[in-house]
Write a structure and sequence with these properties.
5-stranded antiparallel β-sheet, 4-stranded parallel β-sheet, ATP-binding, RimK family alpha-L-glutamate ligase
Length: 283
């Protein structure tokens, strides 16, 4: 009998559909459970105990970690773990966790107010990047090229409705022209692709349709991946690296990574690899 697994997500995208379609080949049955209607505290709501495992791919900045925490408390296998999701959902927490573990990350300042932003401008040279603490897919990531326009840029941050949305990181602009997305399943790197910005958009992000090419499994990259996984635990991650003159630094770790671009660039059968990993967890 197929093992029952739920994909917990707010919508079905290309990745979720491929995982559902490939599930029978791995002896799994994967159903979609909408995280917007999942009420774990209600006795008449959907029950996580109906499934042997939850594959949490929520794109919410908060729901994934909350659902994973409650599911783990109910004794359900969760991928990724609540610890990993809670770290990855918050860029400031993730950077701190990784830096403490010895993983190279870009220099950064936490910006919670205009006073913080002004201090960051004093301490860091422009150009610099201002990005939301909670967010993904390159959205609201802003390159500030000139000091005389910086305060005007921050006006838009102040106009956001909630402190949750206003929390930002300021970091140096690493003008390397490319980033590397590493797709990790379990503890193994299954595919790596380099993305370069296309057109007039300076951001290197697969979700933005940038140019890509396969890259070899560099020993320095593998060392970083091993340390990230040792800290966060085995799981499914999109580890985004920047190449600098001093080596690679980890920009982000995505707990619910899109993998269409890496799969199409490298030819890696990522849905099958995820299915095998789920079977290993359930055996």
């Amino acid at each position: 009998m197929a093992r029952r697994v739920a994909i917990v997500a707010d919508r079905i995208s290309w990745e979720e559909r491929r995982l559902i379609d490939a599930a029978p080949d791995s002896g799994l049955r994967i159903d979609w459970v909408n995280d917007e209607s999942l009420c774990l505290g209600h006795p008449d709501g959907p029950s996580v105990t109906d499934y042997e495992a939850l594959l949490v791919r929520s794109r919410s900045y908060t729901r994934g970690g909350l659902i994973a925490t409650l599911a783990e408390a109910a004794g359900v296998t969760v991928l990724n773990s609540a610890k990993a999701i809670n770290a990855c959902e918050n860029k400031a927490v993730l950077r701190t966790v990784l830096r403490t573990a010895g993983v190279p990350v870009p220099d950064f300042r936490l910006v919670l107010s205009r006073k913080d932003f002004t201090r960051a401008l004093d301490e860091m040279e422009v150009p610099l990047v201002l990005k939301p603490v909670f967010g993904g897919m390159g959205k609201r990531v802003t390159l500030i090229r000139h000091a005389d326009t910086a305060q005007s840029v921050y006006d838009y941050v102040e106009d956001l409705g909630h402190a949750f949305e206003q929390a930002c990181l300021a970091e140096p602009y690493l003008d390397g022209g490319a980033s590397v997305r590493c797709l990790v399943i379990g503890r193994e790197l299954v595919g790596a692709a380099e993305f370069t910005s296309g057109g007039t958009d300076w951001r290197n992000n697969a979700a933005l349709g940038n140019n890509s090419r396969t890259v070899a499994h560099d020993p320095d990259v593998l060392k970083i991946i091993d340390t990230v996984v040792a800290e966060l635990g085995a799981g499914i991650y999109g580890v985004d690296l920047f190449r600098t003159p001093d080596g690679y630094v980890v920009n982000e770790v995505n707990h619910a990574p899109g993998f269409r671009a890496v799969a199409s660039t490298t030819g890696a059968d990522i849905p099958s690899a995820i299915g095998r990993h789920l079977q290993e967890l359930l055996s």
